[in-house]
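W.,

You were right to be curious about this one. When I first looked at the sequence I had no strong expectations either way, so I just let the prediction run and decided to look at it fresh. Below is the sequence, 293 residues in total, followed by the output.
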Amino acid sequence: MANTIGKGEIAMSLSPFVPTPKFEDYRERFKDHFRLERRADGVLLAQAHTLGGSVQLSVENHRALGQLFKTIGADPENEVLILTGSGEHFMMAIDPEGFALERENLQHWAYEYAYKDGRINVSSLINDLEIPTIGVLNGSGGHTEICLMCDLTLCAEEAIIFDPHFNMGSVPGDGIHSCFQELLGVKRAAYALLTGQRIDAKLALEYGLVNEVLPRDQLLGRAWKLADHIMSQPRATRRLTTQILRRPWKQRVADDLDGGFGIQMFAHLAKNEAIHDPDRAASAAAAGRKVFD
């Protein structure tokens, strides 16, 4: 006898949905790396931190970023992401023991940390988040591509944007190169990557790296206001608009992200040296200053 559905009944599939991530669960899971706050309408604020202050780069928080993007993207209750850092700097320091794992096994972590996790961090921002993103650059730091590649980017008046890789003896191929080439163009990107050019907030606005420059204490208020504007449109409109906005980034990521990471990692392994070294980072900052003094 054929199955029939009575009035008011809903047909059920033979198998259920796989449960999606729950905000309360992943807010706790990521608490050592991100402070997460979500409004009732689905606007999510993620503030990266290390021990409550500005981020100090490590193998662990580097991996957490891509994991966070994938988790946020898998939760249908999220509607807009505001991404920022904590404290006065976006990311100006390296955790003193944050790369001990790399020193113990360079060949393993050159892949796990620098090639796999690094690529996922950038590609997940572009491909796994189907919601509008607002990057808030709260201060100076490296790897600012994570905020610059958001759909909208706000920048603190004090922020300096720069890439230290070349001055550290490293190939600038782990994502910032894609960002600079897309936003600055070939010549300006080459100059910034080869010299470690310090691009202040005013010049960043002129170059089109950021959309607005504001005092640091006004950044989040403005981000929430922009999120309110985005939320004024229907859910499908918001999400499908991101597919239009992301097309240039998706093409850029597909064209050269993997290759850039591969070239950078080959250089490090060929030299048999650690990818991140606090002493080399400090000397890179000094070298960058000399170019412009």
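Here's what jumped out at me. The mean pLDDT is 91. And, maybe more interesting for your project: The first strand starts at residue 34 and ends at 38.

Coffee later to discuss?

I.
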